[in-house]
């Protein structure tokens, strides 16, 4: 204690500022109805805007639109997580996006409902950091997906690449490394720099450590892709990072010599902080957890363009102590096999606007076969997992359901995912953005949100005009159709993303944060948040605080060593007696 007391005045002042600032940051299922009743309830719609006098959450309506099929019936019924049941995002569902899109807007405007459209990002957006491009971003969370600061610092994790290394923005994916950023917690957005004030801390993992998963594998590039970072103990400093480890074996023209190898991987490390900065140690061992099985989830041998990535872990409150993982996958089977079914189409009997299965197969829509996968942990360290059947499939609808996450609100289970306009199957369409599904449990007959479509937050897009791509946009398309991507829903309905392309300017920076208000199966963009719906750039606040006093003092004075009271510390924190002594010292 004497050694600590000699630093008394400085410590008390600093801890008071740091920890006080951190503490300030805390703070009927859809039922089947008769075809006749649904037809009677149809009324002329006003796409692109909310009807005058309409309810705030207009997207609750499932009555359909004249000239389009009705959405599929989904009960939201919950099943056992291990049950052999997979909900479907059907073509009948996805067609509701087009049904609620205006056909009369001027070329290049936004044809979608305003309440589901992300506000325009200014073309003069600031770069988050001049030394790295930033895209997929996530936060430090616990098993319930609450976002934590650590000893007075907010921390985020992003895919990063070097803009000065000689490759283009669109080639960044094969060079991706997970980086981390930090800033002081509890500072209002109005008092931060315009770019959000995030300080780049460097690569999260020591160089070369993530490559150990591919020992003995032939590859030309190796990359680290998205995942999630979880506090093992919310009063300690051990973190478990779940991410996608990738190895590419490519020709100079970027074609594949052999299919990419994607492995969902775990690594453990420790977070540290003092008054000046945040840093990490550990991450020396990377444990492969899951590789696609070819039974539920498509492999590289079945499809060289397969998806298998983006692990997000959580403990299900309906099954205390049981940990699950959701991830992006594709329905197993050889690419190009025309095996979509009537159930994937999802049309109601005798719907006059339904496609036939043969029409869909003739269009080639069977190449698009996304799903959202589920796995369950088989041990307490979360280092062993077992596949379960997919939660949602999008066969003949879309080929990518990226970065899925589970969001629980008012007893409802939401699955949010992101997807591109360019990955939709022939005959269906929708913007780049967020898609959501709601049910009564982790495995449910999930109902797509908002008119039964699934669309929650899309970039402003004219669905009457071809998309082009983010790197080669159609000049007649809305110039913000690719303005943001990789959205992540945070506590309170806040949504962060990264800037891709705004009026031809490429991004690689954090977008302005927006907020969606969610009520059962519907949502709206909160235009009262920020400035006309746009919050500050990179406004990613913690809603909980990890105050690890023993770790703070250790990091402050020992930089990883121990002295005085800290000799009593164990594993992830200090003993109760030690914590009591330190608290008495700080508060005296």
TrEMBL record:
Cofactor: Ca(2+)
InterPro entries the record matches: Glyco_hydro_68 (IPR003469), Glyco_hydro_beta-prop_sf (IPR023296)
GO biological process, one term: carbohydrate utilization
Binding positions for Ca(2+) per the UniProt entry: 399
Entry keywords, A to Z: Calcium, Hydrolase, Metal-binding, Signal
Residues reported in the UniProt entry to bind substrate: 135, 226, 309-310, 400-402
Gene3D superfamilies associated with the record: Glycosyl hydrolase domain, family 43
Family, as annotated: Belongs to the glycosyl hydrolase 68 family.
Protein name from the UniProt record: Glycoside hydrolase family 68 protein
Source organism (scientific name): Gluconacetobacter johannae
Lineage, highest ranks first: Bacteria, Pseudomonadati, Pseudomonadota, Alphaproteobacteria, Acetobacterales
């Amino acid at each position: 204690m004497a050694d600590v007391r000699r630093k008394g005045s400085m410590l008390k002042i600093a801890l008071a500022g740091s920890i006080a600032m951190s503490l300030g940051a805390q703070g009927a299922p859809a039922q089947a109805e008769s075809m006749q009743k649904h037809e009677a309830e149809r009324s002329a719609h006003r796409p692109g805007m909310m009807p005058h006098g309409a309810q705030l959450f207009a997207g609750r309506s499932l009555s359909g639109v004249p000239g389009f099929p009705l959405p599929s019936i989904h009960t939201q019924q919950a099943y056992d997580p291990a049950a052999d049941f997979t909900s479907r995002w059907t073509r009948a569902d996805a067609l509701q996006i087009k049904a609620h899109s205006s056909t009369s807007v001027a070329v290049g405007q936004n044809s979608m409902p305003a309440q589901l459209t992300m506000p325009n990002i200014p073309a003069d957006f600031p770069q988050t950091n001049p030394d790295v491009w930033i895209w997929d971003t996530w936060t430090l969370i616990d098993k319930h997906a609450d976002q934590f600061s650590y000893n007075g610092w907010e921390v985020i994790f992003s895919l990063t690449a070097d803009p000065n290394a000689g490759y283009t923005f669109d080639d960044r994916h094969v060079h991706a490394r997970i980086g981390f950023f930090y800033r002081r917690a509890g500072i209002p957005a109005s008092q931060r720099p315009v770019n959000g004030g995030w300080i780049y801390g460097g690569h999260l993992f020591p160089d070369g450590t993530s490559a150990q998963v591919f020992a003995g594998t032939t590859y030309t590039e190796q990359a680290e892709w998205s995942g999630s970072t979880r506090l093992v103990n919310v009063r300690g400093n051990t973190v478990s990072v779940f991410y996608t480890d990738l190895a590419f074996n490519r020709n100079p023209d970027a074609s594949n010599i052999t299919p990419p190898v994607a492995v969902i991987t775990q690594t453990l490390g420790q977070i540290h902080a003092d008054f000046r900065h945040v840093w990490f140690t550990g991450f020396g061992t990377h444990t492969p957890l899951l590789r696609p099985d070819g039974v539920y989830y498509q492999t590289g041998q079945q499809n060289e363009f397969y998806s298998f990535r983006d692990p997000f872990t959580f403990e299900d409150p309906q099954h205390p102590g049981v940990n699950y993982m959701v991830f992006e996958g594709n329905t197993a089977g050889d690419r190009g096999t025309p095996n979509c079914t009537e159930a994937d189409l999802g049309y109601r009997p005798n719907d006059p606007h339904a496609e036939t299965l043969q029409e869909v197969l003739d269009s080639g829509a069977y190449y698009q076969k996304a799903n959202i996968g589920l796995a369950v942990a088989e041990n307490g360290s979360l280092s062993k997992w077992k596949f379960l059947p997919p939660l949602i499939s999008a066969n003949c609808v879309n080929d990518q359901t990226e970065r899925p996450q589970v969001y629980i609100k008012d007893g409802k289970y939401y699955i949010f995912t992101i997807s591109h306009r360019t990955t939709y199957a022939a005959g269906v369409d929708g913007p780049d953005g967020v898609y959501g599904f709601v049910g009564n449990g982790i495995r449910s007959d999930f109902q797509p949100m908002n008119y039964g479509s699934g669309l929650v937050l899309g970039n402003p897009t004219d669905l009457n005009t071809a998309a082009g791509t983010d790197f080669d946009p159609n000049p007649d398309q809305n110039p913000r159709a690719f303005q943001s991507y990789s959205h992540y829903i945070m506590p309170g309905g806040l949504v962060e993303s990264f800037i891709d392309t705004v009026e031809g300017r490429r991004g690689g920076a954090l977008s302005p944060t927006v907020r969606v208000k969610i009520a059962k199966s519907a949502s709206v963009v909160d235009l009262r948040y920020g400035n006309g719906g746009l919050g500050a750039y990179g406004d990613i606040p913690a809603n909980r605080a990890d105050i690890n006093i023993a770790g703070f003092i250790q990091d402050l004075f020992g930089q990883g060593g121990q002295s005085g009271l800290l000799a009593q510390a164990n594993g992830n924190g200090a003993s109760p007696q030690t914590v009591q002594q330190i608290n008495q010292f700080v508060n005296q």
